[in-house]
Protein backbone atom coordinates (compact mmCIF):
# COMPACT_ATOMS: atom_id res chain seq x y z
CA UNK A 1 0.00 0.00 0.00
CA UNK A 2 1.45 3.36 -0.96
CA UNK A 3 1.17 6.36 1.30
CA UNK A 4 -0.46 9.31 -0.24
CA UNK A 5 -0.37 11.69 2.72
CA UNK A 6 -1.83 15.10 1.98
CA UNK A 7 -2.10 18.28 4.01
CA UNK A 8 -5.33 19.88 5.20
CA UNK A 9 -5.98 23.61 5.39
CA UNK A 10 -9.04 25.48 6.63
CA UNK A 11 -9.04 29.19 5.79
CA UNK A 12 -11.51 31.33 7.75
CA UNK A 13 -14.22 28.68 7.61
CA UNK A 14 -17.65 29.56 8.96
CA UNK A 15 -20.65 27.25 9.12
CA UNK A 16 -24.15 28.35 10.02
CA UNK A 17 -27.28 26.25 10.28
CA UNK A 18 -30.06 28.81 9.76
CA UNK A 19 -29.45 31.60 12.25
CA UNK A 20 -27.15 29.43 14.42
CA UNK A 21 -23.42 29.64 13.75
CA UNK A 22 -21.75 26.33 14.69
CA UNK A 23 -18.25 27.26 13.45
CA UNK A 24 -17.16 30.89 13.63
CA UNK A 25 -13.88 31.61 11.86
CA UNK A 26 -11.81 28.45 11.77
CA UNK A 27 -8.30 28.46 10.33
CA UNK A 28 -6.06 25.43 10.80
CA UNK A 29 -3.38 23.39 9.07
CA UNK A 30 -2.66 19.67 9.32
CA UNK A 31 0.81 18.70 8.12
CA UNK A 32 1.11 15.62 5.86
CA UNK A 33 1.76 12.38 7.75
CA UNK A 34 0.57 13.70 11.11
CA UNK A 35 -2.37 12.79 13.30
CA UNK A 36 -4.34 15.80 14.47
CA UNK A 37 -7.18 15.49 16.96
CA UNK A 38 -10.19 17.75 17.22
CA UNK A 39 -11.06 17.64 20.91
CA UNK A 40 -13.75 19.43 22.84
CA UNK A 41 -16.95 19.14 24.82
CA UNK A 42 -20.20 18.06 23.23
CA UNK A 43 -21.56 20.61 20.76
CA UNK A 44 -18.26 22.49 20.25
CA UNK A 45 -18.26 21.79 16.50
CA UNK A 46 -15.85 18.84 16.08
CA UNK A 47 -18.17 16.70 13.96
CA UNK A 48 -19.29 19.65 11.84
CA UNK A 49 -15.63 20.42 11.10
CA UNK A 50 -14.92 16.80 10.16
CA UNK A 51 -18.06 16.60 8.01
CA UNK A 52 -17.00 19.74 6.12
CA UNK A 53 -13.63 18.12 5.49
CA UNK A 54 -15.35 14.97 4.25
CA UNK A 55 -17.65 16.97 1.96
CA UNK A 56 -20.80 15.92 3.85
CA UNK A 57 -21.43 19.59 4.75
CA UNK A 58 -20.32 22.73 2.92
CA UNK A 59 -18.97 25.83 4.64
CA UNK A 60 -21.11 28.97 4.67
CA UNK A 61 -17.91 30.88 3.90
CA UNK A 62 -14.16 30.26 3.81
CA UNK A 63 -12.03 27.69 1.98
CA UNK A 64 -10.92 24.10 2.57
CA UNK A 65 -7.83 22.67 0.86
CA UNK A 66 -6.70 19.04 0.73
CA UNK A 67 -3.18 18.43 -0.53
CA UNK A 68 -3.09 22.06 -1.64
CA UNK A 69 -6.22 21.71 -3.82
CA UNK A 70 -9.33 23.77 -3.11
CA UNK A 71 -12.11 21.25 -2.38
CA UNK A 72 -14.52 23.67 -0.69
CA UNK A 73 -17.46 22.92 -2.97
CA UNK A 74 -16.47 19.43 -4.18
CA UNK A 75 -18.86 16.57 -3.30
CA UNK A 76 -17.68 13.87 -0.90
CA UNK A 77 -16.92 11.29 -3.61
CA UNK A 78 -14.58 13.65 -5.45
CA UNK A 79 -12.38 14.30 -2.42
CA UNK A 80 -9.46 12.10 -1.69
CA UNK A 81 -10.51 11.25 1.89
CA UNK A 82 -12.00 8.20 3.63
CA UNK A 83 -13.93 8.22 6.83
CA UNK A 84 -14.09 5.71 9.67
CA UNK A 85 -17.39 6.11 11.49
CA UNK A 86 -18.30 5.61 15.14
CA UNK A 87 -20.67 2.82 14.18
CA UNK A 88 -18.08 1.18 11.82
CA UNK A 89 -20.85 1.11 9.16
CA UNK A 90 -19.85 -2.37 7.93
CA UNK A 91 -22.29 -4.24 5.67
CA UNK A 92 -23.64 -6.98 7.97
CA UNK A 93 -24.29 -9.52 5.21
CA UNK A 94 -20.78 -9.26 3.70
CA UNK A 95 -17.71 -10.94 5.13
CA UNK A 96 -14.76 -8.77 6.21
CA UNK A 97 -12.84 -9.28 2.96
CA UNK A 98 -15.81 -8.17 0.86
CA UNK A 99 -16.41 -5.23 3.19
CA UNK A 100 -12.82 -4.08 2.67
CA UNK A 101 -12.91 -4.78 -1.09
CA UNK A 102 -16.25 -3.04 -1.63
CA UNK A 103 -14.96 0.54 -2.02
CA UNK A 104 -12.15 -0.62 -4.32
CA UNK A 105 -14.56 -2.49 -6.60
CA UNK A 106 -16.99 0.44 -6.64
CA UNK A 107 -14.15 2.68 -7.79
CA UNK A 108 -13.60 0.34 -10.75
CA UNK A 109 -10.82 -1.99 -9.64
CA UNK A 110 -11.28 -5.53 -11.08
CA UNK A 111 -12.61 -7.99 -8.47
CA UNK A 112 -9.45 -10.12 -8.24
CA UNK A 113 -7.18 -7.12 -7.65
CA UNK A 114 -9.65 -5.56 -5.22
CA UNK A 115 -9.71 -8.74 -3.15
CA UNK A 116 -5.90 -9.00 -3.19
CA UNK A 117 -5.62 -5.46 -1.94
CA UNK A 118 -8.31 -6.08 0.66
CA UNK A 119 -6.39 -9.10 1.93
CA UNK A 120 -3.32 -6.94 2.31
CA UNK A 121 -5.44 -4.33 4.13
CA UNK A 122 -6.67 -6.96 6.61
CA UNK A 123 -3.07 -8.08 7.14
CA UNK A 124 -2.04 -4.53 7.92
CA UNK A 125 -4.56 -4.25 10.73
CA UNK A 126 -3.67 -7.67 12.14
CA UNK A 127 -6.68 -9.57 10.77
CA UNK A 128 -4.97 -11.86 8.26
CA UNK A 129 -7.05 -15.00 7.81
CA UNK A 130 -10.24 -13.43 9.18
CA UNK A 131 -11.54 -12.30 5.77
CA UNK A 132 -14.24 -14.97 5.71
CA UNK A 133 -15.94 -13.82 8.90
CA UNK A 134 -19.11 -11.75 8.97
CA UNK A 135 -19.05 -8.61 11.13
CA UNK A 136 -21.26 -10.39 13.69
CA UNK A 137 -18.54 -13.06 14.05
CA UNK A 138 -15.93 -10.46 15.05
CA UNK A 139 -15.37 -8.59 18.33
CA UNK A 140 -16.04 -4.84 18.46
CA UNK A 141 -12.32 -4.10 18.25
CA UNK A 142 -11.93 -6.41 15.24
CA UNK A 143 -14.91 -4.79 13.49
CA UNK A 144 -13.31 -1.41 14.06
CA UNK A 145 -10.08 -2.68 12.49
CA UNK A 146 -12.02 -3.90 9.43
CA UNK A 147 -13.49 -0.39 9.16
CA UNK A 148 -9.98 1.12 9.35
CA UNK A 149 -8.68 -1.36 6.74
CA UNK A 150 -11.59 -0.51 4.44
CA UNK A 151 -10.73 3.19 4.66
CA UNK A 152 -6.97 2.66 4.32
CA UNK A 153 -7.03 0.45 1.20
CA UNK A 154 -8.50 3.39 -0.72
CA UNK A 155 -5.15 5.11 -0.08
CA UNK A 156 -6.76 8.45 0.72
CA UNK A 157 -4.75 11.64 1.20
CA UNK A 158 -6.45 12.00 4.57
CA UNK A 159 -8.11 9.46 6.86
CA UNK A 160 -10.95 10.87 8.94
CA UNK A 161 -11.86 9.14 12.19
CA UNK A 162 -15.08 10.15 13.94
CA UNK A 163 -14.98 8.97 17.57
CA UNK A 164 -13.75 5.60 16.31
CA UNK A 165 -13.51 3.98 19.75
CA UNK A 166 -16.76 5.06 21.35
CA UNK A 167 -18.45 1.68 20.89
CA UNK A 168 -15.65 -0.22 22.66
CA UNK A 169 -15.29 -0.94 26.36
CA UNK A 170 -12.59 0.92 28.31
CA UNK A 171 -9.92 -1.79 28.15
CA UNK A 172 -10.35 -2.44 24.44
CA UNK A 173 -10.43 1.28 23.75
CA UNK A 174 -6.94 1.62 25.15
CA UNK A 175 -5.65 -1.25 22.99
CA UNK A 176 -7.29 -0.15 19.75
CA UNK A 177 -6.14 3.47 20.16
CA UNK A 178 -2.57 2.18 20.49
CA UNK A 179 -3.07 0.11 17.34
CA UNK A 180 -4.46 3.05 15.35
CA UNK A 181 -1.56 5.26 16.41
CA UNK A 182 1.00 2.54 15.67
CA UNK A 183 -0.50 1.99 12.21
CA UNK A 184 -0.57 5.74 11.48
CA UNK A 185 3.08 6.12 12.46
CA UNK A 186 4.12 3.06 10.45
CA UNK A 187 2.23 3.99 7.27
CA UNK A 188 2.63 7.76 7.78
CA UNK A 189 -0.84 8.67 6.59
CA UNK A 190 -2.47 11.99 7.48
CA UNK A 191 -5.31 11.57 9.95
CA UNK A 192 -7.89 13.88 11.48
CA UNK A 193 -9.37 12.29 14.56
CA UNK A 194 -12.42 13.48 16.48
CA UNK A 195 -12.90 12.65 20.14
CA UNK A 196 -14.24 14.16 23.34
CA UNK A 197 -11.91 11.97 25.44
CA UNK A 198 -8.84 13.85 26.67
CA UNK A 199 -6.78 10.75 27.44
CA UNK A 200 -7.43 9.38 23.97
CA UNK A 201 -6.37 12.70 22.41
CA UNK A 202 -3.19 12.86 24.51
CA UNK A 203 -2.32 9.25 23.64
CA UNK A 204 -2.72 9.33 19.84
CA UNK A 205 -2.00 12.88 18.62
CA UNK A 206 0.87 14.82 17.14
CA UNK A 207 -1.23 17.95 17.55
CA UNK A 208 -4.46 18.56 19.43
CA UNK A 209 -6.90 21.29 18.43
CA UNK A 210 -9.14 22.02 21.40
CA UNK A 211 -12.44 23.52 20.33
CA UNK A 212 -15.00 25.41 22.38
CA UNK A 213 -18.21 27.00 21.09
CA UNK A 214 -17.19 26.70 17.44
CA UNK A 215 -13.74 28.22 17.89
CA UNK A 216 -10.21 27.00 18.57
CA UNK A 217 -9.47 27.41 22.28
CA UNK A 218 -5.84 26.25 21.90
CA UNK A 219 -3.74 24.17 19.53
CA UNK A 220 -0.49 22.39 20.37
CA UNK A 221 1.26 19.12 21.04
CA UNK A 222 -0.12 17.07 23.94
CA UNK A 223 2.81 18.23 26.08
CA UNK A 224 2.35 21.91 25.20
CA UNK A 225 -1.33 21.82 26.10
CA UNK A 226 -0.68 20.02 29.37
CA UNK A 227 2.33 22.04 30.47
CA UNK A 228 1.34 25.47 29.14
CA UNK A 229 -2.45 25.78 29.15
CA UNK A 230 -3.60 29.12 27.74
CA UNK A 231 -6.81 29.34 29.77
CA UNK A 232 -8.49 27.87 32.86
CA UNK A 233 -10.72 25.90 30.45
CA UNK A 234 -7.72 24.17 28.83
CA UNK A 235 -6.02 23.62 32.20
CA UNK A 236 -9.01 21.73 33.52
CA UNK A 237 -9.97 20.04 30.24
CA UNK A 238 -6.52 18.59 29.42
CA UNK A 239 -5.78 16.51 32.48
CA UNK A 240 -7.30 17.92 35.62
CA UNK A 241 -6.14 21.09 37.35
CA UNK A 242 -6.90 23.30 40.30
CA UNK A 243 -7.09 26.85 39.02
CA UNK A 244 -5.74 29.03 41.83
CA UNK A 245 -5.37 32.83 41.91
CA UNK A 246 -1.80 34.03 42.40
CA UNK A 247 0.34 37.15 42.31
CA UNK A 248 3.38 37.13 40.02
CA UNK A 249 5.92 38.96 42.21
CA UNK A 250 9.00 38.87 40.01
CA UNK A 251 10.10 37.55 36.63
CA UNK A 252 13.74 36.75 36.05
CA UNK A 253 14.73 35.04 32.78
CA UNK A 254 12.67 31.87 32.40
CA UNK A 255 11.50 31.84 35.99
CA UNK A 256 8.74 33.63 37.80
CA UNK A 257 8.27 33.95 41.56
CA UNK A 258 4.62 33.71 42.44
CA UNK A 259 2.75 34.07 45.70
CA UNK A 260 -0.22 31.78 46.35
CA UNK A 261 -2.11 32.45 49.56
CA UNK A 262 1.14 33.76 51.10
CA UNK A 263 3.29 30.81 49.96
CA UNK A 264 6.07 31.72 47.53
CA UNK A 265 6.96 29.41 44.69
CA UNK A 266 9.07 29.47 41.52
CA UNK A 267 7.48 28.37 38.25
CA UNK A 268 8.37 28.60 34.52
CA UNK A 269 7.67 32.22 33.49
CA UNK A 270 6.19 31.58 29.99
CA UNK A 271 5.96 35.27 29.20
CA UNK A 272 4.03 36.21 32.36
CA UNK A 273 4.31 39.73 33.72
CA UNK A 274 4.20 40.83 37.39
CA UNK A 275 0.67 41.25 38.66
CA UNK A 276 -2.40 39.16 39.34
CA UNK A 277 -2.63 35.88 37.44
CA UNK A 278 -3.83 32.31 37.79
CA UNK A 279 -1.99 29.04 38.28
CA UNK A 280 -2.94 25.62 36.99
CA UNK A 281 -1.95 23.24 39.79
CA UNK A 282 -2.16 19.52 38.96
CA UNK A 283 -3.69 17.37 41.73
CA UNK A 284 -0.43 15.39 41.96
CA UNK A 285 1.68 18.57 42.39
CA UNK A 286 0.30 19.32 45.85
CA UNK A 287 1.85 17.99 49.06
CA UNK A 288 0.06 17.76 52.40
CA UNK A 289 1.67 17.73 55.83
CA UNK A 290 -0.30 17.63 59.07
CA UNK A 291 0.28 21.03 60.75
CA UNK A 292 -1.69 23.39 62.99
CA UNK A 293 -0.16 26.53 61.46
CA UNK A 294 1.28 26.99 57.97
CA UNK A 295 2.00 29.60 55.29
CA UNK A 296 -0.70 28.00 53.15
CA UNK A 297 -3.08 26.28 55.57
CA UNK A 298 -5.87 23.91 54.67
CA UNK A 299 -8.25 21.44 56.22
CA UNK A 300 -9.00 18.01 54.74
CA UNK A 301 -12.69 17.83 53.91
CA UNK A 302 -12.80 14.56 52.00
CA UNK A 303 -10.55 11.49 51.53
CA UNK A 304 -11.03 8.50 49.20
CA UNK A 305 -8.67 5.49 49.21
CA UNK A 306 -8.14 4.22 45.62
CA UNK A 307 -5.51 1.50 46.03
CA UNK A 308 -2.37 3.13 44.70
CA UNK A 309 -3.28 6.67 45.71
CA UNK A 310 -5.59 8.67 47.94
CA UNK A 311 -7.76 11.46 46.58
CA UNK A 312 -8.27 14.37 48.94
CA UNK A 313 -10.20 17.56 48.95
CA UNK A 314 -8.83 20.33 51.13
CA UNK A 315 -10.55 23.59 52.00
CA UNK A 316 -8.29 26.65 51.84
CA UNK A 317 -8.90 30.40 51.85
CA UNK A 318 -8.33 30.23 48.06
CA UNK A 319 -11.09 27.63 47.56
CA UNK A 320 -11.27 23.81 47.49
CA UNK A 321 -8.22 21.95 46.19
CA UNK A 322 -8.30 18.48 44.66
CA UNK A 323 -5.19 16.47 45.54
CA UNK A 324 -3.87 13.08 44.44
CA UNK A 325 -1.43 11.68 46.99
CA UNK A 326 0.56 8.51 46.15
CA UNK A 327 1.57 7.96 49.81
CA UNK A 328 -1.18 5.63 50.92
CA UNK A 329 0.53 4.54 54.15
CA UNK A 330 -0.34 7.68 56.05
CA UNK A 331 -3.95 8.57 55.33
CA UNK A 332 -5.14 11.94 56.58
CA UNK A 333 -8.61 11.90 58.10
CA UNK A 334 -11.22 14.52 57.22
CA UNK A 335 -10.87 17.41 59.67
CA UNK A 336 -7.03 17.22 59.78
CA UNK A 337 -5.34 20.62 59.53
CA UNK A 338 -2.55 20.57 56.95
CA UNK A 339 0.23 22.67 55.48
CA UNK A 340 -0.19 22.80 51.72
CA UNK A 341 3.02 22.65 49.70
CA UNK A 342 3.78 22.61 46.00
CA UNK A 343 6.15 20.38 44.03
CA UNK A 344 8.38 21.68 41.27
CA UNK A 345 6.54 20.00 38.41
CA UNK A 346 2.89 20.22 37.44
CA UNK A 347 2.38 23.93 38.07
CA UNK A 348 1.91 26.43 35.25
CA UNK A 349 1.03 30.09 35.01
CA UNK A 350 -2.05 30.42 32.85
CA UNK A 351 -1.01 32.98 30.26
CA UNK A 352 -3.54 35.82 30.09
P1 LIG B 1 -20.65 15.87 19.99
O1 LIG B 1 -19.38 15.56 20.73
O2 LIG B 1 -21.85 15.92 20.88
O3 LIG B 1 -20.85 15.05 18.75
P2 LIG B 1 -19.65 18.08 18.36
O4 LIG B 1 -18.57 18.88 18.98
O5 LIG B 1 -19.28 17.09 17.34
O6 LIG B 1 -20.53 17.42 19.51
P3 LIG B 1 -21.31 19.22 16.32
O7 LIG B 1 -22.08 17.97 16.03
O8 LIG B 1 -20.31 19.65 15.35
O9 LIG B 1 -20.67 19.15 17.77
O10 LIG B 1 -22.38 20.39 16.53
C1 LIG B 1 -21.98 21.74 16.76
C2 LIG B 1 -23.22 22.59 16.97
O11 LIG B 1 -23.94 22.69 15.74
C3 LIG B 1 -24.19 22.01 17.97
O12 LIG B 1 -24.75 23.07 18.74
C4 LIG B 1 -25.25 21.34 17.11
O13 LIG B 1 -26.49 21.34 17.76
C5 LIG B 1 -25.26 22.23 15.88
N1 LIG B 1 -25.62 21.48 14.65
C6 LIG B 1 -24.94 20.46 14.09
N2 LIG B 1 -25.52 20.01 12.98
C7 LIG B 1 -26.64 20.76 12.82
C8 LIG B 1 -27.70 20.80 11.85
N3 LIG B 1 -27.72 19.95 10.80
N4 LIG B 1 -28.68 21.72 12.02
C9 LIG B 1 -28.66 22.58 13.07
N5 LIG B 1 -27.70 22.61 14.01
C10 LIG B 1 -26.70 21.72 13.90
UniProtKB/TrEMBL annotation:
One BP term from GO: quaternary ammonium group transport
Any one Pfam family match given in the protein's UniProt record, by short name: TOBE_2
Protein's UniProt keywords contain Nucleotide-binding: yes
InterPro entries attached to this UniProt entry: AAA+_ATPase, ABC_SmlMolc_Importer, ABC_transporter-like_ATP-bd, ABC_transporter-like_CS, Mo/tungstate-bd_C_term_dom, P-loop_NTPase, Transp-assoc_OB_typ2
Listed SUPFAM superfamilies: MOP-like, P-loop containing nucleoside triphosphate hydrolases
UniProt keyword list: ATP-binding, Nucleotide-binding, Transport
PROSITE patterns in the cross-refs: ABC_TRANSPORTER_1, ABC_TRANSPORTER_2
UniProt domain ABC transporter: residue ranges: 8-238
UniProt keyword annotation of Chaperone present: no
GO CC annotation: ATP-binding cassette (ABC) transporter complex
An example molecular function term from Gene Ontology annotations: transmembrane transporter activity
Protein family membership: Belongs to the ABC transporter superfamily.
Entry protein name: Iron(III) transport system ATP-binding protein
